[in-house]
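Session log. Operator J.P. requested a structure for one protein chain; no other inputs attached. Running the standard single-chain path with token output.
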Amino acid sequence: MFLRALTAGGDGLREWQAANGLDAGAAAWLRAEGVGPYAFHRLRETGLLGQLQPDVAATLRGAYYTSAVGHVLLAAELEALLAALRPLGVDPIVLKGMALGTTLYPAPPTRPVSDLDILIERSQVGVVKQVLQARGYQDMGLDPDQHQAFTNHLHMWRGYGGENKVAIEAHWDLVHDPAYAGQMDLAGVRVRAQWADFGSCRALVLAPMDQLIHACAHLLLHHAESWRQVWLLDLRLLVGQYGETWDWATVMDRARAAQLGGAVKYCNTAKVTTGCTSF
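Structure written below.
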């Protein structure tokens, strides 16, 4: 119910806050679920932040500014990576949280990010790995307990400032599960990709409809037993911003062509939590 209130108008959020309120435990849960930065933004813009207990406000504020630091760091990494890759003929598509924070959320820090995900072509893997290694990145490898069959992305990291690390994942498919790998029309995805501003650089991102299908596939195939609220919020905002303009028959046709129609239908369950009703 709180996610529904967060994405409603200011009056809806004020009514929820007046009737329910947030305590320290709820604020910690919001931060752990990745929704803390968005909650901080919405409560601040509706004038409700000052009504929170100091420890509650501090938790949400910390979530927001921690996310802001992550976006600044990854935007700088993206700019440097693009400057190195484009002369070599590689123009990656930015995926997941970094793309959503820039194109869908009210401000990049309202969507926390843990790494930089990019989509490249299979033939570009060697070039991308060499560029990352030249920038000091190391191959992190894959967790064998969680990613035994995930053979279609690089996972590389480099340290900065003591024990801190920044990670980049370079994918050459949008779905890791081998049963679905290669099913999405990546040529069509690239044609439909759109430009977005990431601070001091511009990069390609998925078109909104492709973003929805990818988000549903990611949620069902990779995290079916651990639905974080931030992923449900992604769906809520995507449908809220674009749902009325989409031809939903086209959405489902495109999803079924990639064998992901079931994933989109399955994620309709998200409306129970987020208030999505357009699926």
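Operator note: The chain has a mean pLDDT of 87.
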